[in-house]
Amino acid sequence: MTRIERSFRGISERLAIHYLTNLGGERVDDATVEGDGWTATLSSERVDIGPTLSLTEVTVVFEGDEETVEPLVERFAQKAMRAGG
Q: Within 13 Å of residue 38, how many CA atoms lie on the same side as its CB?
């Protein structure tokens, strides 16, 4: 079982869930998406960037089979980077 935790700034949990369902997952609840051989659990918080700016930072914990999770994280990161960072 592999566990990878990644944080992404500038995207919402809603958009992250949308990306995960497009990558073959099914939404289980407000913070969990499951696919064949993997589970992704999301959380988010506002983080300050400098004295006057804040962004949403979404943290995704990917768990599952190593051969499934590692490519999934890569594909999700590519989508998330195009969206906001």
A: 26
- Give the tokens for residue 62: 């990917």
Give the Cα separation of 75 and 16 in Å (integer): 12
Q: CA angle, 11 as apex, 1 and 69 as ends, to 5°?
A: 15
3-state SS assignment for residue 41: strand
For 17-51, write each residue's pLDDT tens digit. 999 999 999 999 999 999 999 999 999 999 998 89
Q: What's the CA angle centered on 39, arms 41 and 54, to 5 degrees?
A: 25
What domains are there in the chain, each with its CATH number?
2-83 (3.30.1370.80)
The C-alpha atoms of residue 49 and residue 75 are separated, in whole angstroms, by 26
